[in-house]
């Protein structure tokens, strides 16, 4: 979290000879060919470049190129890992090592890179005399949103972390409660400053998709409040998202996970990847390089055997849960085959190959379950071995908001009202009407139903372990979780969070390691 100014030291030996001495200040001067922090923030274009760089931290290995989905998915009971890489294998077994900060340490570093960039925008853009004041407001709103989003991940994954609100070098470790308070404060500000859509603005950002909106800020604000059991407040913010009237579930569930249907009506916020932008190298992290592309390595990491590395696989529990209920036409839930690649008796095609034929010589793979969600398995790609997927990561979907709103209705005494919003998600995949098959559910019964719906609708999208933790199941249902996913056998208190990377403990005075490590 250090200020990286661009200063170039020049020694004027001629001046030394003429004047006999040189003051120390004369030896450090700005290179006129390189922008410094002091010279950069001058106009509208600089402000836009600054906020765009803040989004850029979402695209590298520590965040959504690869590491963050792994950290969010692997601890849930919907996924498992047999990766030969110990740092990845151990995530789902709650056994990440302080001695090896691979994956989790990269995430921590990149979150704070994004926070630092957001803080640069928030410190410098207010001082720019911009021609378009509305544009300035939107840029600042995006900076508040992105700072909150990076902190949202840092607090969820690492618990007690620094909460930088300026570009100073050192920031003391704060409590989780203080972290959530900062996140919610930033999101409240963002919600007030951001537009509902960029289609309705005038300015240099007009019509640009992928930027943070009021709906995204409100949805994450509600989710942060849900993590803190502030059900009444969360309910109000989810209702505001619904009342914006611009979001709807896409008819085909699959359209949320392909490159052909990005930024659709269901997407509230998504990470923008593209095979056509930038260079061809992956953004592994650190200082940006000109050859970096804007692609994701999620697909190859999760891909079925023979098409990628198969470091993540669905659990048998997830598969069986999909099989519990038929559609009104007595068919299997269509989300199953979008989520899981398997030896479907009715046939299953992936990457142009018939599943049963491709794995015929290997009985273990023939009977295995593989991830299909976010794979390029529907198009003309033969496999994922070039590492470069352009599929956007939809990190906040309207379906999630509908189910969270139903949860808050149930928690605040309106169990009957919760039926409506749960059923909206079920109707998309043609499941029976809950009011008919499960009328008059109690609050607890509705909670269990919502938990089931979230498990299936949002499987392998980084939500399940968040739900397990915020519902207190690590305390109340640990044996049940072990039955569903044996990786929970190695859970111990405190291991729901990752360790603070040792470099942070060493370099930031006063930092205390998380309990359990």
UniProtKB/TrEMBL annotation:
<dbReference type="Pfam" id="PF07980">
    <property type="entry name" value="SusD_RagB"/>
</dbReference>
<feature type="domain" description="SusD-like N-terminal">
    <location>
        <begin position="100"/>
        <end position="223"/>
    </location>
</feature>
<feature type="domain" description="RagB/SusD">
    <location>
        <begin position="266"/>
        <end position="517"/>
    </location>
</feature>
<keyword id="KW-0732">Signal</keyword>
<dbReference type="InterPro" id="IPR011990">
    <property type="entry name" value="TPR-like_helical_dom_sf"/>
</dbReference>
<dbReference type="Pfam" id="PF14322">
    <property type="entry name" value="SusD-like_3"/>
</dbReference>
<dbReference type="InterPro" id="IPR012944">
    <property type="entry name" value="SusD_RagB_dom"/>
</dbReference>
<dbReference type="InterPro" id="IPR033985">
    <property type="entry name" value="SusD-like_N"/>
</dbReference>
<keyword id="KW-0998">Cell outer membrane</keyword>
<protein>
    <submittedName>
        <fullName>RagB/SusD family nutrient uptake outer membrane protein</fullName>
    </submittedName>
</protein>
<comment type="similarity">
    <text>Belongs to the SusD family.</text>
</comment>
<keyword id="KW-0472">Membrane</keyword>
């Amino acid at each position: 979290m250090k200020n990286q100014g661009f200063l170039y030291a020049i020694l004027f030996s001629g001046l030394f000879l003429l004047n006999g001495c040189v003051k120390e200040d004369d030896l450090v001067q700005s290179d006129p060919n390189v922008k410094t922090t002091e010279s950069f923030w001058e106009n509208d274009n600089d402000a836009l470049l600054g906020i765009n760089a803040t989004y850029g931290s979402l695209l590298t290995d520590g965040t959504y190129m690869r590491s963050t989905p792994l950290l969010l998915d692997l601890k849930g009971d919907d996924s498992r890992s047999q990766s030969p890489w110990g740092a990845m294998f151990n995530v789902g077994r709650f056994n990440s090592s302080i001695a090896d900060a691979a994956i989790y340490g990269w995430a921590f570093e990149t979150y704070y890179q994004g926070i630092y960039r957001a803080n640069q925008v928030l410190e410098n853009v207010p001082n720019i005399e911009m021609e378009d004041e509305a544009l300035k407001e939107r840029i600042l709103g995006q900076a508040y949103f992105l700072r909150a989003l990076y902190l949202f991940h840092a607090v969820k994954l690492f618990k007690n972390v620094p909460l930088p609100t300026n570009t100073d070098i050192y920031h003391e470790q704060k409590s989780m409660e203080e972290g959530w308070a900062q996140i919610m404060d930033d999101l409240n500000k963002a919600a007030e400053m951001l537009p509902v859509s960029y289609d309705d603005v005038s300015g240099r950002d007009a019509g640009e998709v992928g930027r943070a909106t009021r709906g995204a800020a409100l949805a994450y604000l509600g989710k942060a409040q849900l993590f803190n059991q502030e059900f009444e407040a969360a309910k109000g913010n989810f209702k505001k998202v619904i009342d914006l009237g611009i979001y709807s579930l896409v008819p085909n569930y699959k359209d949320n996970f392909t490159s052909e249907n990005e930024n659709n009506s269901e997407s509230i916020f998504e990470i923008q990847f593209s095979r056509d932008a930038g260079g061809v190298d992956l953004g592994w992290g650190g200082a940006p390089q000109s050859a970096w592309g804007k692609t994701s390595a999620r697909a190859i990491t999760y891909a079925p055997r023979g098409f990628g590395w198969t470091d993540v696989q669905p659990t048998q529990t997830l598969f069986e849960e999909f099989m519990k209920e038929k559609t009104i036409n007595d068919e299997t839930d269509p989300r199953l085959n979008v989520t899981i690649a398997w030896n479907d008796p009715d046939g299953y095609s992936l990457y142009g190959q018939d599943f049963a034929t491709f794995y015929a010589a290997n009985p273990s793979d023939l009977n295995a379950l593989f991830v299909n969600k976010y794979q390029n398995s529907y198009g003309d790609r033969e496999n994922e071995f070039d590492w470069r997927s352009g599929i956007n990561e939809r990190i906040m979907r309207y379906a999630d908001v509908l189910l969270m709103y139903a949860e808050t209705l149930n928690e605040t005494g309106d169990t009957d009202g919760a039926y409506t919003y749960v059923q909206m998600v079920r109707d998309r995949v043609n499941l029976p009407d809950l009011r008919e098959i499960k009328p008059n559910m109690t609050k607890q019964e509705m909670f269990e139903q919502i938990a089931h719906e979230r498990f299936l609708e949002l499987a392998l999208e980084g939500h399940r372990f968040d739900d397990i933790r915020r519902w207190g199941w690590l305390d109340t249902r640990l044996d049940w979780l072990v039955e569903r996913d044996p990786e929970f056998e190695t859970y111990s208190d405190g291991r729901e969070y990752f360790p603070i990377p040792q470099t942070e403990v060493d370099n930031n005075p006063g930092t205390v390691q998380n309990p359990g490590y």
